[in-house]
Structures are given as structure tokens and as C-alpha cells.
Amino acid sequence: MTEEMDAEETFENLLFYFLMWVQVTTLPLVELCKKWGNYNVAWELLHDLRSNGEAIVASTCSHLTADQKKAVTEFLQKLNSVPESLLVSATSADANHKVMSHSWWVPLRSSAALLLKNLDSATTRNAEYFRRN
Questions:
Q1: Residue 98 domain flag
Q2: Which domain holds residue 97?
Q3: CA 66 → CA 58, 119, 131, distances in Å?
Q4: Which tens digit of pLDDT belongs to each residue from 96-123?
């Protein structure tokens, strides 16, 4: 029988994956695509950032500060400006490299790096949670 996660565990898992996807966003092009297995990298990355990001902001068990929630929300809003041409089915390394080398990603990578700095205390607390559990 599978045990359900409580609200705190759910939040910490969502935060863990959100932080991982934000970190992946900062990686150099080839490494980023490899992390995603060169399969629909743009769509998968944006989908996971949005779903986990929205969930951590909305969580009733969130330990993010108001400023951190605002920073996450602002980062997520930047994802809304993605050109539709980047959300194509890309199933090869070449196709994913082409999509992920578009100039739209450059400021997003910078924003991701700044967001990680802003979330440093949450990252530390998240790591401590998993060390304890």
C-alpha cells in the first residue's frame, strides 16, 4: 500500500524539482539538452517549471517568503512570452539544440540564475528537509 505525502512533504518535493529545473535552465545549451534526453526540451522544461512553480507559490505549507514568492511568480510570467515557434516537437539533439539556442532563452537563463540566488535560503531549508527525512 502506498502512503500519501502530507502537505509539507508535497511542498518540499515540488520545491526540490522546481529548483532542479531552474538550475537546469542555467546550464550551457548542450548540457541542458542532455539533461532532458534531447526530447521536446523546450516544452518539457517550460511545463515542469510552470507546474512546480505555480504549486510552490500556492502551497499552504510553503516556507517561501513573500519576496521569494514574488520572484518565482515574476520568473513564471517570463515563461508566457515564449515564442510558439519554440514549442515544436523536437526529438533529436540537433532539433533541440536549434530550439534551445534561440535568443529568447538568453535572458531567461540570466533570470534563472538570479532566481536561484533569491531562493538560496529555501534551497538550504529544502536540502535540510531531505537530510532529515
A1: yes
A2: 7-121
A3: 12, 11, 25
A4: 999 999 999 999 999 999 999 999 999 9
